[in-house]
Amino acid sequence: MTSLTSARAEMRDLRRAPEPAVLARLLPAATLAPATRAAVENRALGLLADLRAAQGSGWVNRFLQQYRLNTAEGVALLSLAEAFLRVPDAATADLLIRDKIGGADWGAHTGKSDSLLVNSATWGLVLTRAVVGAGERASVLQRLIARSGEPFVRTAVGAAMRMMGQIFVMGRTIDEALDRASDSDNKGFTASFDMLGEAARTRDDAVRYYDSYVAAIQRIGASNQAAGHSISVKLSALHPRYETAHAATCVPELTDMLGSLASAAAAAGIGLTVDAEETERLDMSLDIIAAVAQHRQLRGWDGLGMAAQAYGKRAAAVIDWAQALGAETSRQLGVRLVKGAYWDSEIKRTQVEGLADYPLFTRKAATDVSYLACAAKMLAAPNIFPAFATHNALTVATILEWAGGPEGFEFQRLHGMGEGLYERLVREDGYACRSYAPVGGHRDLLAYLVRRLLENGANSSFVHQLADAGVSDIDLLADPAVRIAAVGGTPHPSIPLPRDLFPGRVNSSGLDLADAEVLARVERDVLHLDEADRLFGKRSKINDVDPSTGQVACAVAAAHAAFPAWDATPVGKRADILERLGDLLERDRAKLMALCVDEAKKTIGDALGEVREAVDFCRYYAAQAREHFVPMLLPGPTGERNELRLAGRGVFACIAPWNFPLAIFLGQVTAALAAGNTVVAKPAPQTPRIAAASVALAHEAGVPADVLRLVIGGGDVGSALVGDPRIMGVAFTGSTRTARAIARTLLDDDRRPLVPLIAETGGLNAMIVDSTALPEQVVVDVVTSAFRSAGQRCSALRLLLLQEDIAARTLDMLKGAMDTLIVGAPGDPRTDVGPVIDEAAFDRLETYRQSKQDRWVHTIAAPAEGNFVAPTIIRLPGVEALREEWFGPILHVATWRSGELDATVAAVNASGYGLTMGLHSRIASSAERVAATARVGNLYVNRAMIGAVVGSQPFGGEGLSGTGPKAGGPHYLPRFAVERVVSTDTTSAGGNASLLSIEDAAGI
Q: Of the given ranges (63-77, 448-462, 732-746, 780-794), which has the lowest mean pLDDT?
């Protein structure tokens, strides 16, 4: 029999196993014998008939069927539902309505339903569009109707959104939910109440959520002991740092809290189920559940349960683990088997982090196979009480056939969905079914509603296909095991592995820092390198470089002499060398990360991102060189050949900053090398060892020593470098003031031609937030953008501009989120905010911070020893009050009024800087307006403002923030090159061969 230890070992293997190998182990259990398959199909056809009858019986079902997610109108309604009830001000609410309803074609749906109520609702939407869609060309009468009609429309939309909330939310309070659970519509069904919508962002959130669980447990227990209701608990709601890096603190704290809740549930005579969350939290959740199950005072209580997600590759091993835990603690452990709730975000996270493979299945049919295999395990496990949560008729029919009767398990469904599937089974056949019932205010839980509708409205889902008249019963009941066997268990062809995400190049590989073993290994590698390793061994040769201006002339002379041969090197060979450099960077990733932590004071996560970005630059510019640095034939008259070629300019000076001492340093260098230039590279004086290691690896990859030379030093060395007349171009990242000085030097030097300056400089980066934005998402993105990397990113958020209607609430939540941050040593995995780069930076930032103490909105503690600047929010009277960039963890905040979006963007533009801007809004037209008017290089909508990805988000500013073109973009390499055209008259040798061949072909 499987033990707890062996099950956990199996999970580790499955997490990294290829999808076909995992499915090969699951298929036998999910494959039905012909006779069983026939019986299952017969049962499923009956369930389909019940489902279709239920879909046609209620106007709500018909309404949702008419406005499915494969229609623009369905998406518009869903977007409106997600945001409308949290908007406090009328003007923005009207904008949201106009945005979502005003642009949709509601007339296309008129009279299309057989429900009078649905058709009436459609006519209401048509009329609403007529009211809110009146634009500049509307008549005076239309505009008058629009102005007078908006309050009525607003009221009607609010009522409609609350009605949608009532459909999918059991009650606004636990008492309301209990009353509704006992009404006639829910007769025979029990409920598992879920008190929350989103995870805790602050300690206060966690306390409030914990208290709501305690109150709900007491109320459920007191209301009706015989009803059989239970409660579901989300661990992320009980702790704002439920993360692997914080496992040493959050796991014991959560164990204590869950133990207390379980004891209360046991005393109240109700069950408690721990919800499943993202796969990165699975190991921690199992540790917590096991510790609670082993509490002496809970022995003999069978009310403890957990959820398992079938879309995860580890699902079958999780079932084995649950059986082992039940056996060890002498109980039946409840297990709720679900398909999974985070599939899309899990796919994206795996791609963004460049992991080796997905922790879940990429095909819907594969998840169904996993579900059936897990269901078979659960039905056979003596120490598991199975709960099968599904809306799929084929899955239900299979379980009914396997179980052989109604005893010993239950079904579960989401409240508000799956009507018709279980009613006959519960009320006539004696089967048990429990509704997963969210409880809370409609405003707070509509984000939850949207996720559930998206999951169940996906094109591949059973619920969506059932509503599609074009999908036959045969298609609906297709055997998932047969479908998976037919494709050999291969992953979905439209979901490539992360390494294959970008055409023409291999994506940089990452590390799963949410895996405790991986994180421990990385921490060991970063913290336990000896001094020789920290200097990267003899290969760094940093001590061989003379840190003076005397080295510059020698380095430039060598690079100048090496230029003709390097420029003549075939572009394919240059690209091969850069790709080898990318491979070497990955080979030595641990040492490079250690250098970034030690010398640049980067956190472990930032150090990993730094290495990955450098690798991406190498591979991206190699691919770009192969594409662009080949002869291009241009059109022209017959008898003439016109050919365009790109070639190197000469010696490029690459001057990199300390905040990205590996990625930006190598990004500049590899672009120049790919274009055929030789390079003299000067790193920031704070980070010479990282640069030396980079250059050593480039030489190892095949870049000749004189093609890439390193110079070390401060401003005098930089001035000598750009002042050398043999420098034919400069790539610079740093301050605007230094960029101006370089530009003057290049322009005022009569000894050389006009040469390019490619500069990326500072910014007063603003994020604008309106009242439609989701506060929890805003807070996460603000903390990430303003304080990650100790605010020492060019793109970091400097100015938060909140619509005044939501400023107080957002700032309260932001303060609480800041209080959870860890300011400390950069090599500690728990650290969120490390020190600033050096004492000079500390003195400048701290002097400014202290001078604004009367305007502090919030600050947190920071270590007294070391160059730690405490993350701080400073209030400003307006945009114009911020006149310079403060390169550290200091965030300024100001407010703007509803209706002043355009003026706010104009005020940001007036600063003259144009690097990054953020916008949080659910109003698409607002995003379009900002995109059209903001004079910034990178605009980020409803996401964080940092972490630009090479090839996906080319990075660079305009105005005072840089010259362009954008690093990591398709227009970057040509700036490092000269263009040459050769035009040849092919008739000069006698006759126009091309015309003669045409004449012959025509038979003339």
A: 448-462
Start-to-end CA span in the chain (Å) = 88
The helix or strand, by DSSP H or E, that contains position 315, with its residue range, turns out to be: helix 315-328
CA separation for the pair 623, 968 (Å, rounded) = 11
Task: From 889, 886, 831, 837, select the one nearest 858 (Cα to Cα).
Answer: 889
Query: In angstroms, rounded to a whole number, what is the distance separating the alpha carbons of residues 815 and 800?
Result: 13
How confident is residue 989, by pLDDT bands cut at 50, 70 and 90? low
Per-residue pLDDT at 916: 97
Instruction: Look at 91-95, 246-250, 581-585 and tell me which has the smallest mean pLDDT.
Output: 91-95
pLDDT at 525: 87
Length of the chain: 1004
The three-class DSSP label of residue 938 is strand
For residues 675 and 979, what is the distance between their CA atoms, to the nearest angstrom? Answer: 11
Residue 206 near residue 238 (C-beta atoms within 8 A): yes
Work out the mean pLDDT of the chain and round it to a whole number: 89
Contact (CB, 8 A) for 343 and 311: yes
Tell me which residue of 534, 532, 510, 659 sits closest to 591, measured CA to CA.
Answer: 534
* Active-site annotation, residues: 760, 794
pLDDT-derived band at 469 (thresholds 50, 70, 90) equals low
Q: What is the number of other CB atoms lying within 10 angstroms of the CB of residue 5?
A: 10
User: Which residues 6+ apart lie within 8 Å of 31 measured at CB?
Assistant: 481, 485
Q: Say if residue 742's pLDDT is above 70.
A: yes
pLDDT score recorded for residue 134: 46
**Sign of torsion over alpha carbons 290, 296, 298, 300:** positive
Nearest to 358 by CA among 256, 492, 207, 538: 492
Task: Write out the DSSP string of 682-744.
Answer: E--TT-HHHHHHHHHHHHHHT--TTTEEE---SHHHHHHHHH-TTEEEEEEES-HHHHHHHHH
* Neighbour tally for 792: CB within 10 Å: 25
The CA distance from 880 to 908, in Å, is 8
**Other beta carbons less than 10 A from residue 854's beta carbon:** 7
Element (H, E) at 856: strand 856-859
State residue 534's pLDDT score: 47
pLDDT 10s digits, 207-242: 999 999 999 999 999 886 557 899 999 999 999 999
Helix, strand or coil, per DSSP, at residue 801: strand
Task: Tell me the pLDDT band of 145, cut-offs 50, 70 and 90.
Answer: very low
Q: Which two three-digit tokens encode residue 855?
A: 């305007």
Residues 689 and 536: beta-carbon distance below 8 Å: yes
Cβ-based neighbours of 753, under 8 Å, separated by 6 or more: 728
Strand partners, 307: 336
Whole-prediction pTM: 0.93
Residue 653: pLDDT over 80: yes
Tokens of 654: 């690459």
Q: What is the per-residue pLDDT for 241?
A: 97
Cis bond upstream, residue 480 (ω within 30): no
On the question of pLDDT at 455 being above 60, the answer is no
**CA atoms of 317 and 3, how far apart (whole Å):** 11
Three-state SS sequence of 407-462: CCCEEEEECCCCCCCCHHHHHCCCCCEEEEEEECCHHHHHHHHHHHHHHHHCCCCH
Can you tell me the mean pLDDT for 393-403? 96
- For the stretch 27-35, contacts whose Cβ atoms lie closer than 8 Å and that sit 24 or more positions apart, written own/partner, are 27/369, 27/373, 27/481, 27/484, 27/485, 27/489, 29/372, 29/373, 29/376, 29/377, 30/368, 30/369, 30/370, 30/372, 30/373, 30/376, 30/480, 30/481, 31/481, 31/485, 32/398, 32/479, 32/481
d(CA 370, CA 27): 8
